[in-house]
Amino acid sequence: MTVAIVPSEPSPAPLSDLVARDAREFGVYARTGGWAFGLMVARSVRPGGQGAQETPKVSAKEFAELAGCSPDRVMRYYKAWDRAADDGMVPHFEALAPGQEVELPDADVWLSYYVSRNSATSERGTAISEAAEAEGIRPTKALEVAENPTALRAAILADPSTARAARQALLDRVREDPDLQAELARDVVRSDRLKKAVATESRSADRMGYVRQIAESGQVKTPAGQTIDAPVDLRQEAERHLSLLDELDEEENAGEWATEAYDTMKSLVAEAVEADPELRVQERRSKFYSSIQRATKAFEELTFDDVEDFVEDDMVQRLEELQQAIAGCLTALRGTRG
Fold this sequence. Notes:
This protein is mainly α. The chain has helices spanning about 15-30, 35-45, 60-65, 70-85, 105-110, 125-135, 140-145, 150-160, 160-175, 180-190, 190-215, 230-245, 255-275, 275-300, 315-335, and strands spanning about 220, 225-230.
């Protein structure tokens, strides 16, 4: 009888102690993140004010030399642990001894205490960190952006949503920064394209303001500058246009809508003036008097200093024609009162 021989599976190689150690350390870091390294610093670096004779711990400089890194890096872990201890998240340095193990917080919590950049300790870095916390983001993210302005510029140029966020941030900043206001104003006036865009938006804002004034106050200015109570139908039409303008998305161009609303209101105001005989007379009186005032001001601004040096015949002729027109105007006005 032939007996089949089944080859046995090769036995696994013995587990390397180095592999096992790496796996354990990886597991610790996966669960605790930077807390594991923070604990190493906290239990091995002596707190400030504690002498070398009082504890087996070493200074941050000595620990860094043993670790083969910079003292600044050690101190960032030290300060992160100190902040967490103040919040009751971990034990204080004095309560820890070299080699001691403690229960560590979750890995995600570490990032709210640890700042990986030296700039975080500067006045500028502190301000950036505080602003980041106010916005609900990690300070490390904001500091990274602040330290890479070229990357920020690239993101703004390439991505519309980033550009919009940057624009809103600048608007928030410019309200409290007179120097930035002046710089932005200079940038605008130096660019013909920006000046044109600003003029267009300003005109749209004025027109929207005209419609809003009618809808909200119930009053309107006539073409001659009189302020009158808006008729009910005129105010309702203004409210309708205003609601359409207010419903526009931020990305939509309100210029055309504002122009249409403004033109409609101006036309309705003119119709309202013409439909009211008394108001029509008041309007014409206001226009006439306004024209007289403008003509008077223009004439009063004339100066005759050294006039003999530049006077020409056509100037005299124009003034004589003006004199005749004024005389005719006075005759007509006096005739209406006779």
